[in-house]
Amino acid sequence: MEIKKEVLDWVNSVADYTKPDKIHWMDGSDSEFNSIMEKMLKDGTMEKLNASYKNCYLHRSHQNDVARSEARTFICSETKEDAGPLNNWLPPAEGKTIYNKLFVGCMKNRTMYVIPYVMGPIDSPYSQAGVQVTDSPYVCVNLKIMTRIGKKAMEKIKSGFVRGIHATGSLNPEERYIMHFPSEKLIISINSNYGGNALLSKKCHALRIASTMAKSEGWLAEHMLILEVENPHGKKYYFAAAFPSASGKTNLAMINPPSEYSGWKARLIGDDIAWLHLGKDGRLYAINPEYGFFGVAPGTNEKTNPNAMETIKKNTLFTNVAVTKDGMPWWEGIEPVSEVTDWTGKKMDPKDGKAAHPNSRFTTPIIQYPHLSSHYEDPQGVPITAFIFGGRRESLIPLVCESFDWEHGVFMGATMGVEQTAAAEGKVGEIRRDPMAMRPFCAYHISDYFEHWLSFGKKSTQLPKIFYVNWFRKENGKFLWPGYGDNFRVLEWIIERCEGRGEAVKTPIGNVPQKDAIGGNVPNDAMEKLLHVDAGGWKREMEDVERFFSSLGRVPGPLKKRLEVIKKAL
Ligand code: OXD
Ligand code: MN
Predict the structure, then answer these.
(1) Pick the catalytic residue: 124, 189, 201, 247?
(2) 315: closest CA among 274, 254, 367?
(3) 77 is a catalytic site residue
(4) Beta bridge pairs of residue 148
């Protein structure tokens, strides 16, 4: 592998500071993967799973280090105003002081791995190369699955590439820092070895740093799945959909059409991140920058997500799941067993509590997915037919609602929210507004992000239509809508609307289907409730949106105007 001078100089400057024993330049080969894995099997970082899970391993993380640490994630932009009201801000100089203090000698007696990686199809003009250095072998093997690493990546590196510095450190959560310096395209992370905190290519590069690049270069970096649907005549439609965590995003990305949809196909392009560029024809084209899934394990099973279950049978890393006596990975949602070793390493009966951590994960190659779109590696990406926004809401929000126009669609995305389910982050029942599911990932002022979205309305007349869905309506504690595969019925209605067909009822908040338009095995009265627009409830919702807008300090005029229009119509 020919190492570029700009990369070498930078790596040496980091090594001068962190003082590793050795520097290992990753070529991305399987033999390299195996030898790093060998080391981790020896020191207990990894455990081999049952041979029926070929080439699969288990890792248990530190008990203080089990999820993305939003409170310890910082945007080090020039001013606090640049970072906006939804981000933690640190002045860049303060960020550098922290780096200087915490990173001196932090890799002593350890190997520093240098990982050149590419986000996106190797030949795509929209792909980006970056380099992460890390002292964590666990990060190395995860990154080999999640991104395209090694020689090809090194060849793609251009001057000004995105740089990530990660050190495992002490894992002390109080001294944990995940810092982003957008103007330098630099990410610095210490004291975590978990997921989005440590695999810097994913949330840190492909969303946060990319969001700032997208803003200045005129494209979109979004927290969206990408799904291909083909109808029985062979016509293809593409959906890009944003949902906050725990709102069914992975399941929608991996959906199977219900059995009576003969001839219809659903294929996956991405499950978490989409980069979207305007094509010459005015349509928005999406690529998936990632090469693997980092999916939540609990709840995944043959019924809810058979495609995920098939994907993870080989070459998969499991983190913080439980394991059965014969070495099978196990979590809540899989067939009950009497005894497991839980995610902390203790023997237990799953009846006595949760054996897998609720945020336990599988890291698995996307190319193992059984219904991968043939356009997954298309350098130009796929033309998006419709954007879908949604969040988990037990009441009020209808099953599906079509926006009147681009501005209204942006309003829907900007105001989307999820109910708080755990008391920890807010009061139960309170709505957390999570614009476009980007609240934790937009690295600049959220109002400028809204402005950026609105600007596309002036650049093209061929933009995707925008819809808002909610699979989670409940009555008396029971779901009104079956969800999962049945969500495909909603996609079919969306396709009809995009084709200028399909019946709809105009309401103050958008167009909803007529009650017989969706089909499926749902009683009439339930369907009526699912599609009902309750004016009183919506007025209160708009008051809450108004409070949210005021909390942001400034909001683009067209969104404020839209709020007034809806209030009046209600
Ligand atoms: C994720 C997340 O892990 O959004 O994808 O939290
Ligand atoms: Mn995500």
Answers:
(1) 247
(2) 367
(3) no
(4) 118
